[in-house]
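Aim 2, interim progress: modelling of the zinc ion-bound target.
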Amino acid sequence: MTAFAALAAFQRETEALALVMGRLGWDRETVMPRGAAAQRAEEVAALEAVLHARRTDPRMADWLAAAVAPDAAGEAALRHLRRDHARAVRIPARLAAETARVTSLAQGIWAEARARDDIAHFLPVLAQVLRLKREAAAALADGGDLYDALLEEYEPGMTGAALAAMFCRMRPRLVALRAAILGTGRVPPPLAGRFPQDGQLRLAREVAAAFGYDFHRGRLDLAVHPFSSGSGADVRITTRVDEADPLGCLLATIHETGHAAYEQSVDPAHALTPLGHGASMGVHESQSRLYENQIGRSRPFAGWLHGAMGRAFGHAGAADADALYAALNRVVPGYIRTEADEVHYNLHIMLRFDLERDLVAGRLEPADLEEAWNARFLADFGVAVDRPAHGMLQDVHWALGLFGYFPTYALGNVYAGCLWAALRADIPETDALIARGELGPITRWLGEKVQRHGRLFGPGETIARACGGAEPTEAPLLDHLEAKFGALYAL
Ligand code: ZN
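Predicted structure of the complex, ligand included:
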């Protein structure tokens, strides 16, 4: 057996175990009994120890040194394995297991703290998670930037400095657009009436299927914080339901369908290899954002949705498709990132990006986070945070140790802007297709141009290839937002 074949066989088992680990996470956030939290933390830590031992196995170094790839996909797989192995061996086994154990517990503590608006309940475990992540960052950075070392996990090749520069270019145009919209004094009404849970879940399933989600290899469940999980033949999505607001369930479902369709569409030849996932969190988010925003919040889709809601609920909560379109695109300076409109969304990310960079650098302590968050929110959104669940307790990410993850959401918006411009140029009848609910040609374009490649190419290269070679920039997204909201709010 060649070194490459031995490495591939070993890696296939590691990938399978990593999928089991992911499914334990799905279970914890959907159906696990609350009383199982402490035992689950031990289960996860034990499996993490197995995974860490495999990723740092001494044979890996020998195989990686000797392996010769048979083709381009093999070359790409070796690049990922060499990078991942170099990172894994820098993390002591004790730190890997401790991080898995503490973040698993922290998720439950965060949920309790958020429900009770009790920051003091969350701060000790947040400080513990941050200490572990800073220790990991120092080990990974080897004298370099701590934040970049964590960011590398989610967006290979990206740096905090590059993101900060991009956000600086985006910020003035977003702030100006926000001011112009709020200056009109127009706030379209939300939907009116009741939308029972079973109807919402039926509609969610119908919409997910229309967007190309394969229920034969997936399922839809409820979760506090919607997410998707898995890859290949088992990719699951979750959503949440508010009977007064069906758009929350609908848009969360479309968003997670974007993530899941990506994982379901990766070339089966890449399954259980390092190439069998999305290229990066930013590219992943470009799919979910494009499904949710460029399609799900568009006027043609509102036309189709108005009919579908009438069938699901006997009414759509809005007089006509134009009113539904306006309700899908209400621009309000709300507290919650996941409920934010397209204009405010990236401002939510910039706030978190700056705060977590300060936390990781040691410039900000968890005990001072609430004050820093609230001051920044007031400055950016013109509203004082009224309760912690609407402020620093709203997102699970920091409890899970996901420092460096937030900016990939904004990067996903930027990538989605680039892809949308390229897609519309290739498919001139895009609007007519969406208006008829025929999303197949659009999702197939994304499948062919982006999704099937998995991790064959780097994140920036994946987007550039789909866009005819053009390097991704923030310009198409900002042009799109200014045109869309300029028309909607008669600016
Ligand atoms: Zn997402």
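Residues 255, 259, 285, 288 surround zinc ion (CB under 6 Å). The radius of gyration is 22 Å.
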